[in-house]
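Lab notebook, design round three. We kept the backbone fixed and only want residue identities now. Task for the bench partner: fill in a sequence for the structure below.
Input structure tokens:
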């Protein structure tokens, strides 16, 4: 039996593949089934437009914070220059 490897061959034949599960859509926390189906069904143009709008809004927000930081930094350096040398606080 061992010489002809009968056991190994028999076990290999017994292995069966697991059946694949069919995709089943159901609601997730925070999104109902209707909302999910709407998102799946929407056209790529609409999706791209929404993405562009979101990116634009994020970029504007980042730019605004950078401008605020720059203005604050300029204000601090201006006040330091006006104090002069050797000033004690």
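Proposed sequence:
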């Amino acid at each position: 039996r061992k010489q002809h490897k009968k056991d190994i061959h028999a076990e290999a034949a017994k292995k069966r593949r697991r059946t694949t599960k069919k995709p089943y859509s159901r609601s997730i926390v925070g999104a109902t089934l209707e909302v999910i189906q709407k998102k799946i069904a929407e056209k790529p143009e609409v999706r791209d437009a929404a993405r562009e709008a979101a990116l634009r809004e994020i970029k504007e927000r980042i730019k605004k914070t950078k401008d605020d930081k720059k203005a604050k930094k300029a204000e601090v350096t201006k006040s330091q220059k006006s104090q002069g040398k050797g000033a004690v606080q």
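Keep this in mind before ordering anything: The mean pLDDT is 81.
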